[in-house]
Amino acid sequence: MLLRFDDPSAYLARLSDHDELETFAVLRIVERLVSQPRADALLVLDVEDDTVLGETVVGAAAWTPPWPLTITSWPVARLHELVDVARDHAELTSVVTTPALADALVALHGAPSRRLGLAFHVLTAVIPPRVGAGYRRFATEEDVPLLADWLPRFLHEVKLPLLADPIDTARSFVRDGRMHLWIESDRPVACTAHLDFGRGGTHVGMVYTPPELRGRGCASRLVAAVSQHALERGRRHLTLYADPENPTSTAIYRRLGYVERYLHVELGFDRPA
Predict the structure, then answer these.
(1) Which residue from 76, 165, 227, 267 has the fewest beta carbons nearer than 10 Å?
(2) CB of 211 within 8 A of CB of 205?
(3) 51, HSE (Cβ side, Cα atoms, 13 Å)
């Protein structure tokens, strides 16, 4: 049975007994909606009624257009119901989901114009990287122009579209205290952002070093420092997505202690799916 929610808090309550690592991709959307409501959000669960166990959540999806429709789980046999609801809601141009559901969606609606793998990694203890120059600091308003320049470059490299104004995005990261910089010789040489989620998770994203500054371990030291800072704040596990087609970045994260947990896929469509 497909259930739609207008209240993100009520949606989260129905997911409270689920593994927050398995539902991360949906949690990060819905938790933000609690503090920053949006009238165009689509929050959907699929529930099965068991005579012994009662109602059980077997599917979870969340969407804030134009960002991707995100599906962490859903019965394949009923995927068409979710897609119909989504298409009635807005133009469906991208989806993040599991490989099995991505294949089912492609079988139903044709080949996408973009298919990217997203390997979800988890860390519970940092393995210190090689000692090097520099230190971590939070980004400030003065760093916004630089971050606004780096953000489109990062998205271009990871083959993702730019869906929001870079200045606004950078300023939001700074205002929320979620953007970190690695500083060498008094200048920023790498950046990354964090997002706390669930009861004990912190996600690390947008890891970027300009090409001319790579190969010196700046990003490794920054990710390690941000991860350790989160653990010292009482967070229990760190997570990040890595490109499974990029063995260099994957090896860097693994050396820091990140272990792959599962794979997600992002599908992009030139026309509504």
Answers:
(1) 165
(2) no
(3) 0
- The answer to whether domain 126-256 has CATH 3.40.630.30 is yes
- Note down pLDDT in tens along the chain; length 273 residues: 999 999 999 999 999 889 999 999 999 999 999 999 999 999 999 999 876 667 899 999 999 999 999 999 999 999 999 999 999 999 999 999 999 999 999 988 778 999 999 999 999 999 999 999 999 999 999 999 999 999 999 999 988 888 899 999 999 999 999 999 999 999 999 999 999 999 999 999 999 999 999 999 999 999 999 999 999 999 999 999 999 999 988 999 999 999 999 999 999 998 644
Q: Which residue ranges make up each domain of the chain? A: 2-119, 126-256
pTM (predicted TM-score): 0.92
